[in-house]
Specification:
about 220 residues; alpha/beta; six-stranded parallel β-sheet; 8 helices
Length: about 220
Protein backbone atom coordinates (compact mmCIF):
# COMPACT_ATOMS: atom_id res chain seq x y z
CA UNK A 1 0.00 0.00 0.00
CA UNK A 2 1.10 3.57 -0.67
CA UNK A 3 -0.55 6.61 0.89
CA UNK A 4 0.28 10.29 0.40
CA UNK A 5 0.27 12.97 3.15
CA UNK A 6 1.48 16.52 3.77
CA UNK A 7 2.77 15.61 7.26
CA UNK A 8 2.64 13.04 10.04
CA UNK A 9 1.32 13.97 13.50
CA UNK A 10 2.36 11.47 16.19
CA UNK A 11 0.94 10.93 19.63
CA UNK A 12 3.77 9.99 21.98
CA UNK A 13 2.88 7.57 24.81
CA UNK A 14 1.80 4.22 23.40
CA UNK A 15 2.46 5.42 19.86
CA UNK A 16 6.16 6.30 19.62
CA UNK A 17 7.23 5.11 23.05
CA UNK A 18 6.03 2.67 25.68
CA UNK A 19 5.82 4.47 29.02
CA UNK A 20 2.82 2.53 30.27
CA UNK A 21 4.57 0.72 33.17
CA UNK A 22 5.86 4.04 34.52
CA UNK A 23 2.47 5.71 34.14
CA UNK A 24 0.67 2.82 35.81
CA UNK A 25 3.01 2.91 38.80
CA UNK A 26 2.55 6.65 39.31
CA UNK A 27 -1.21 6.66 38.79
CA UNK A 28 -1.77 3.56 40.92
CA UNK A 29 0.08 5.16 43.82
CA UNK A 30 -1.97 8.34 43.40
CA UNK A 31 -5.27 6.47 43.24
CA UNK A 32 -4.52 4.32 46.26
CA UNK A 33 -3.48 7.38 48.27
CA UNK A 34 -6.93 8.88 47.66
CA UNK A 35 -8.95 5.63 47.87
CA UNK A 36 -9.87 5.83 44.16
CA UNK A 37 -10.80 2.71 42.20
CA UNK A 38 -7.63 1.92 40.23
CA UNK A 39 -9.34 -0.08 37.47
CA UNK A 40 -11.90 2.65 36.86
CA UNK A 41 -9.13 5.25 36.67
CA UNK A 42 -6.96 3.18 34.31
CA UNK A 43 -9.87 2.64 31.95
CA UNK A 44 -10.08 6.33 31.06
CA UNK A 45 -6.75 8.04 31.83
CA UNK A 46 -4.75 7.04 28.73
CA UNK A 47 -4.38 9.76 26.12
CA UNK A 48 -6.02 12.43 28.28
CA UNK A 49 -4.29 15.34 30.01
CA UNK A 50 -3.39 14.43 33.59
CA UNK A 51 -4.92 17.54 35.11
CA UNK A 52 -8.29 16.66 33.56
CA UNK A 53 -8.17 13.14 34.97
CA UNK A 54 -7.21 14.46 38.40
CA UNK A 55 -10.10 16.93 38.37
CA UNK A 56 -12.45 14.13 37.42
CA UNK A 57 -11.40 11.70 40.14
CA UNK A 58 -9.93 13.73 42.99
CA UNK A 59 -12.04 13.74 46.17
CA UNK A 60 -13.43 17.02 47.55
CA UNK A 61 -10.91 19.26 49.24
CA UNK A 62 -7.95 18.11 47.17
CA UNK A 63 -5.97 20.76 45.28
CA UNK A 64 -5.87 19.45 41.67
CA UNK A 65 -2.89 21.59 40.67
CA UNK A 66 -0.80 20.47 43.63
CA UNK A 67 -1.70 16.84 42.94
CA UNK A 68 -0.83 17.28 39.27
CA UNK A 69 2.59 18.72 40.08
CA UNK A 70 3.40 15.90 42.49
CA UNK A 71 2.24 13.27 40.02
CA UNK A 72 4.22 14.89 37.21
CA UNK A 73 7.40 14.79 39.27
CA UNK A 74 6.80 11.13 40.12
CA UNK A 75 6.53 10.30 36.42
CA UNK A 76 9.61 12.36 35.51
CA UNK A 77 11.60 10.49 38.17
CA UNK A 78 10.47 7.07 36.87
CA UNK A 79 11.60 6.57 33.26
CA UNK A 80 14.16 3.77 33.57
CA UNK A 81 11.98 1.30 31.65
CA UNK A 82 10.58 3.71 29.05
CA UNK A 83 11.41 2.35 25.57
CA UNK A 84 10.60 3.11 21.95
CA UNK A 85 7.86 1.28 20.09
CA UNK A 86 9.77 -1.05 17.78
CA UNK A 87 11.14 0.82 14.77
CA UNK A 88 9.89 4.25 15.88
CA UNK A 89 13.29 5.94 16.13
CA UNK A 90 14.48 4.68 12.76
CA UNK A 91 11.15 5.53 11.12
CA UNK A 92 11.03 9.12 12.38
CA UNK A 93 14.66 9.69 11.40
CA UNK A 94 13.64 9.21 7.76
CA UNK A 95 11.12 12.08 7.94
CA UNK A 96 11.98 15.65 6.87
CA UNK A 97 12.12 17.90 9.92
CA UNK A 98 9.32 20.13 8.63
CA UNK A 99 6.98 17.25 7.88
CA UNK A 100 6.28 15.75 11.29
CA UNK A 101 5.31 16.70 14.81
CA UNK A 102 4.62 15.10 18.17
CA UNK A 103 1.21 15.88 19.65
CA UNK A 104 0.98 14.64 23.22
CA UNK A 105 -1.26 15.00 26.25
CA UNK A 106 1.84 14.99 28.44
CA UNK A 107 3.38 18.26 29.69
CA UNK A 108 6.52 19.28 27.79
CA UNK A 109 8.84 18.56 30.74
CA UNK A 110 7.64 14.95 30.94
CA UNK A 111 7.57 14.50 27.16
CA UNK A 112 11.19 15.55 26.77
CA UNK A 113 12.37 13.25 29.58
CA UNK A 114 10.49 10.26 28.21
CA UNK A 115 11.69 10.81 24.64
CA UNK A 116 15.30 10.99 25.79
CA UNK A 117 14.86 7.84 27.88
CA UNK A 118 13.52 6.01 24.81
CA UNK A 119 16.29 7.28 22.54
CA UNK A 120 14.12 9.51 20.34
CA UNK A 121 15.05 13.04 19.32
CA UNK A 122 12.19 15.54 19.73
CA UNK A 123 11.06 17.10 16.44
CA UNK A 124 11.12 20.82 15.67
CA UNK A 125 7.36 20.98 16.31
CA UNK A 126 5.96 19.46 19.47
CA UNK A 127 2.51 20.31 20.82
CA UNK A 128 2.01 19.33 24.47
CA UNK A 129 -0.58 19.67 27.20
CA UNK A 130 0.94 23.08 27.96
CA UNK A 131 -0.04 24.45 24.54
CA UNK A 132 -3.82 23.96 24.43
CA UNK A 133 -6.75 24.73 26.70
CA UNK A 134 -8.75 21.74 25.49
CA UNK A 135 -7.00 18.39 25.42
CA UNK A 136 -7.87 15.26 23.47
CA UNK A 137 -10.52 14.23 22.39
CA UNK A 138 -10.84 17.87 21.28
CA UNK A 139 -8.99 18.38 17.96
CA UNK A 140 -7.17 21.56 19.08
CA UNK A 141 -3.76 19.93 19.54
CA UNK A 142 -3.68 18.35 16.08
CA UNK A 143 -4.99 21.52 14.43
CA UNK A 144 -2.26 23.52 16.16
CA UNK A 145 0.48 21.10 15.12
CA UNK A 146 -0.66 21.16 11.49
CA UNK A 147 -0.75 24.96 11.55
CA UNK A 148 2.78 25.13 12.96
CA UNK A 149 3.94 22.87 10.14
CA UNK A 150 2.14 25.06 7.61
CA UNK A 151 -0.20 22.35 6.35
CA UNK A 152 -3.89 21.53 6.60
CA UNK A 153 -4.84 18.97 9.24
CA UNK A 154 -7.02 17.23 6.67
CA UNK A 155 -3.89 16.47 4.63
CA UNK A 156 -2.12 14.84 7.59
CA UNK A 157 -1.91 11.34 8.99
CA UNK A 158 -2.41 11.15 12.75
CA UNK A 159 -0.69 8.27 14.54
CA UNK A 160 -2.48 7.24 17.73
CA UNK A 161 -3.11 4.38 20.13
CA UNK A 162 -5.88 5.60 22.47
CA UNK A 163 -9.58 6.29 21.89
CA UNK A 164 -9.30 9.93 23.01
CA UNK A 165 -6.51 10.61 20.54
CA UNK A 166 -8.24 8.76 17.72
CA UNK A 167 -11.34 10.87 18.31
CA UNK A 168 -9.20 14.03 18.28
CA UNK A 169 -7.62 13.05 14.97
CA UNK A 170 -11.01 12.35 13.46
CA UNK A 171 -12.36 15.69 14.69
CA UNK A 172 -9.37 17.44 13.10
CA UNK A 173 -10.29 15.91 9.76
CA UNK A 174 -7.12 13.84 9.46
CA UNK A 175 -6.62 10.23 8.49
CA UNK A 176 -5.65 8.03 11.46
CA UNK A 177 -3.26 5.11 11.82
CA UNK A 178 -3.58 3.10 15.03
CA UNK A 179 -0.46 1.65 16.68
CA UNK A 180 -1.36 -1.48 18.66
CA UNK A 181 1.98 -2.44 20.24
CA UNK A 182 0.80 -1.72 23.80
CA UNK A 183 -2.75 -3.04 23.41
CA UNK A 184 -3.76 -6.07 25.44
CA UNK A 185 -7.18 -6.35 23.80
CA UNK A 186 -8.44 -5.72 20.29
CA UNK A 187 -9.42 -2.10 19.66
CA UNK A 188 -12.42 -1.84 17.37
CA UNK A 189 -11.62 0.87 14.84
CA UNK A 190 -12.46 1.74 11.26
CA UNK A 191 -8.92 3.03 10.75
CA UNK A 192 -5.85 1.23 9.55
CA UNK A 193 -3.67 -0.30 12.23
CA UNK A 194 -0.18 -1.73 12.59
CA UNK A 195 1.60 -3.20 15.58
CA UNK A 196 4.74 -1.07 15.18
CA UNK A 197 6.92 0.62 12.55
CA UNK A 198 9.02 -2.35 11.44
CA UNK A 199 7.04 -2.99 8.25
CA UNK A 200 6.69 0.67 7.28
CA UNK A 201 8.80 2.96 5.13
CA UNK A 202 8.44 6.49 3.76
CA UNK A 203 9.40 8.13 0.50
CA UNK A 204 9.43 11.88 -0.03
CA UNK A 205 7.82 12.97 -3.30
CA UNK A 206 9.21 15.80 -5.43
CA UNK A 207 6.58 18.14 -4.00
CA UNK A 208 7.51 17.18 -0.43
CA UNK A 209 4.55 14.90 0.19
CA UNK A 210 5.14 11.82 2.35
CA UNK A 211 4.41 8.50 0.70
CA UNK A 212 3.72 5.86 3.32
CA UNK A 213 4.50 2.30 2.27
CA UNK A 214 3.60 -0.87 4.12
CA UNK A 215 5.73 -3.79 3.03
CA UNK A 216 4.83 -7.40 3.52
CA UNK A 217 6.83 -9.08 6.25
CA UNK A 218 8.19 -12.58 5.61
CA UNK A 219 6.16 -15.13 7.54
CA UNK A 220 3.27 -12.71 8.19
Amino acid sequence: MTRRYAAFLFDMDGTLINSIPSAIRAWTAWAERHAIDVEELMAVMHGVRAIETIRRFAPPGVDPQAEFEALLQAEIDDVADVVEISGAAAFTRTLPADRWAIVTSAPRSLAEVRLRAAGLTPPAVMVTADDVERGKPAPDCFLLAAARLGVAAGDCLVWEDAPAGIAAGEAAGADVMVITATHHARLETRHGSVVDYDALSVEVAEDGALLLNERMVAGA
